Amino acid sequence: MKRLTSTWLVLMLTFSVIGLFTSSIVIYTYYYLRELPPLCTSFKSPFPGITIDCERVLSSRYSDIGGVPLDLLAAVWFIVNIILVLTYDLGPGNLAKLALDSLFYWRFIGIVVVPYLIFVETYLLHALCIYCTIMHAMIIIDFIVITVFFIKAGKTPNASVH
What we know:
The chain is mainly α and 162 residues long. The protein has helices at residues 6-32, 54-58, 70-90, 93-124, 130-153, and strands spanning 43-44, 51-52, 64-65, 68-69, 127-128.
């Protein structure tokens, strides 16, 4: 049973797919091939005192949690987001309800982490990683899209599935 219009489905999946693709590039090139991802040259950004320098960001002590790269955690976040959206759209009643309730809360995990990561890059490292910035933007846009969906659909956690 489809619960989402084509427009909502595309909107809810597009930004997670872009984020997953972006994190996958970093995981593959930086952590597997041990090379900088494409377009990761160091140059001045339009923000005073900040450079665009993926290597500084990816090699910093802030780039992992307990040895797990943040890019891998981002990929997992995007994958879970995609699974929750598809489960809500196509899953049976109770599972769809659980997926929708989970999606409501899942989006907050991403949006809470992004300001910290932006703080680390801009104020502690004085460097931005273009791939990280794309992932941050995708999480923010995804949060907005899902929030608008909940508002327009009048959905709240634990509400009945229509």
